[in-house]
## 1
Amino acid sequence: MNPNSPKDASKLEATVEKWTVPLGNLFVSLFHRIALFGIGAATVWSAAVAFMGMMSKGSASIEDLLLLFIYLEIGAMVGIYFKTNHMPVRFLIYVAITAVTRLIIDLVNTKHEADLPILYMGITILVLALANAVVRYASFKYPSKSGENE
């Protein structure tokens, strides 16, 4: 097909788009699925290694338990994204809050004193909690329409 006029060129463009858009969408969907399985598998593997480390140590500290909660939240994020194709931003905030809490506990356990870095981390948790409240309010007030492609 040799386009001789703009009309022929637009027909060619429409034909190419008719075939490439579904193919591109298929590849993107396949990539998402493969990546989700990879992230899920890495999460399970990391959680299992952490758990086995706790078992070999003979006890679990509060930091260890919080680490398992982080793995749980990441697993929940993968599951929600797999089912809905929407990234649950609130879960990322929960992971961040838990990670900062682990840092605070680690600092307190090593230094045995309250100082400015601990205060900063506490403020960080407050900011993250406020961000979570904003996200929750926004998703309640302005829900996404089902079937809307983002």
## 2
Amino acid sequence: MQEALTYLGQTFINFREFLFEDHARRWVDIKRFGMSHSDVGDTHILTELIGHEQFRDDYAGGGVEADGLRHGPYWLRNVSPAAYVRMDEMGANAMLRDWAAQSGPLPVALSARLEHEVHPLVAGATERYRLSDLGHEAFHDWGGVHIDFHELVFIDRPAKILSLLVAADD
């Protein structure tokens, strides 16, 4: 059987590339995947995402490790489809905007980039999920390095695209 998810590429938005004092070392990482079967259930799609090599990323400079045991601040073994909760469009947009502007107003160019790269994913998704806070007991050996770690999954069934978005700091 064909792989359920095919990695298509990545977009990285580093707040440090924009001129303002309060970037707080924040960034947004978006990984896009093509879905070969858009008619399967969300639990199956999330299971495929968790099992994908590109999911094995610590988001702390180590990058993707094919045999990695970490995902963000968590041991990979602690992440399951049940850890994801549904969000509506308004809630996802509010969470992302609040996180981005937590230290004050954003530069116009950064706001425009987020509006162009991030918010269309939210609007176009037929399903939206966020990874729950799994707690400190689920952290890997240095998992507390991020002050903020927000992970959202956007499933766009008509386009057959899944987007994994991480908004965090380093």
## 3
Amino acid sequence: MLKIGLTGGIGAGKSEVSRLFAAHGAVIVDSDLIAREVVAPGTDGLAAVVAEFGPEVLREDGTLDRPALGAVVFADPERLKALNAIVHPLVRARSAELEAAAAPDAVVVHDVPLLAENGLAPLFDLIVVVDAADEVRLDRLVRLRGMAEEEARARMDAQASRADRLAIADLVIDNGRGLAELSARVDEVWAELAERAAAS
């Protein structure tokens, strides 16, 4: 089994790279998806979030109001730490379960947005960083996700710098151009990962 840590700043295109890896046969362990699962209605995770942040972070239907919670935690690093202290251990436990279920010769790609921020690089055999210039990412967040520029900048500023992510990279996938170039680069990286997995 080859354990890959896949990361990239918000707007870099990490989700698209994850999708392309999955098409090649990678086992994807998506931290964002798991982070939603562990705070679904009826979970201990959601109960802990409500205990910490109050019932105002819940929607009327009992689900987590992500924009309301985001407005609190992205404006205050201490509140973000409190949220991470609840969610991250739950995500790690579920990720370990999914990894354990993969085949012995699998390439397991852990899609982890905050890999650099949380010092998680040593947990993986290789780190793949999806990279795009800050101005490209900002444009995507505003144009494609409909974020206000101020909100987009705040989200970017809450993450590690581009330099910090590149410093932990074993392999870099440049996503500053188009989808054709991205797909070709993912093909190259996948070939290398598959070769390493076979060798291990």
## 4
Amino acid sequence: MCLLDAVIDWSAAAISCRAVSHTDPANPLRADGRLGAAIGIEYAAQAMAVHGALLADAAGASDADNGPRHGYLTSLRGVTLHVARLDDLSGELSVYAECIAGDGQFILYRFSLGHAGRCLVEGRATVVLNAEAMISAARS
């Protein structure tokens, strides 16, 4: 399921995307005919995943032996929902994620979801990379 429509801009530090899937009545994340604002976290998580893939591709980090690195959203902090729902907004959503710290095993992102210059959802997320490898190493 891809909620994002386009990458607008990206750098080693951040990514900006746009989405209109919040207006789709068939959006798979709708419940009881509505799309709650907390779903904005999934939009941001997808932007973080695309950012990671773009960085890996630029660095040639995905190789045949190890495959692509998988990230897992493990923690959310300081999340603020400024609206109750997303589906009642017409036009595009802007999705922004900025890497504010990272070390190859963990990445801390600041994210926001906006509409027409208004912040709808914001917060911070921690992504753990290659969690399976970390678990295997801890068990050894």
